[in-house]
């Protein structure tokens, strides 16, 4: 059944989008869990909680995006590190989008942490897909 679903999406060139959204959802879940554990369990500040959530979710996202979404192959350590460096650089840009939208929503518009986090994650997922598709995982693809 799963294989039929995969073939159905692949014939419509939607498999990559599906896997990105699936693993993006898991990455967002990692981000939210770490954020709220840091915030509620350890009583860390907003910036510390969000930064820790970002670091752990970026590491998770790199592995899943490289292997299962974009099926990127790199030859040698230098190529791998270059790809990882680009990934971290563009994720840093999206971190500032995340942090800026969080601070704007919480401090200026007085929304709750959860609503601000969800809104910021929608913006981040879209930006990260575009960065990954067009600027990061541009090397060889597995067949």
What does this structure look like?
This protein is mainly alpha-helical and 143 residues long. It has one domain (2-138). Helix content is 83%, strand content 3%. The protein has five helices and two strands. The protein has helices at residues 2-11, 15-41, 46-69, 76-108, 113-136; strands at residues 72-73, 140-141. Strands 1-2 form a two-stranded antiparallel ribbon. Helix 2 packs antiparallel against helix 3. The two termini are 21 Å apart. The mean pLDDT is 90. One of its GO terms (biological process) is polysaccharide biosynthetic process. Its main location: membrane. Belongs to the GtrA family. The chain crosses the membrane at residues 12-36, 42-63, 88-108, 114-131.
Number of helices: 5
Shape: globular
pLDDT < 50 runs, ≥5 residues? none
Percent of residues in helices comes to over 70%
Number of strands: 2
Distance between the termini: 21 Å
Percentage beta strand: under 5%
What does the largest sheet look like?
A: 2 strands, antiparallel
Q: What letter string, H or E per element, gives the SSE order?
A: HHHEHHE
Average pLDDT for all residues = 90
CA radius of gyration is 16 Å
Structural class: mainly alpha
Sheet with most strands: strand arrangement: 1-2
Q: Tell me the domain tally.
A: 1
């Amino acid at each position: 059944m799963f294989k039929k679903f995969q073939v159905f999406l692949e014939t419509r060139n939607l498999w990559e989008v599906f896997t990105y959204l699936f693993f993006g959802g898991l990455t967002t879940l990692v981000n939210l869990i770490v954020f709220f554990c840091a915030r509620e369990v350890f009583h860390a500040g907003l910036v510390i909680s969000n930064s820790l959530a970002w670091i752990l979710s970026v590491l998770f996202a790199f592995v899943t995006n490289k292997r299962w979404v974009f099926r990127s192959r790199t030859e040698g350590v230098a190529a791998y590190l270059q790809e990882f460096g680009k990934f971290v650089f563009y994720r840093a840009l999206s971190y500032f989008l995340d942090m800026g939208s969080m601070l704007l929503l919480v401090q200026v518009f007085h929304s709750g942490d959860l609503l601000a986090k969800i809104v910021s994650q929608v913006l981040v997922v879209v930006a990260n897909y575009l960065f990954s598709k067009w600027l990061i995982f541009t090397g060889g693809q597995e067949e």
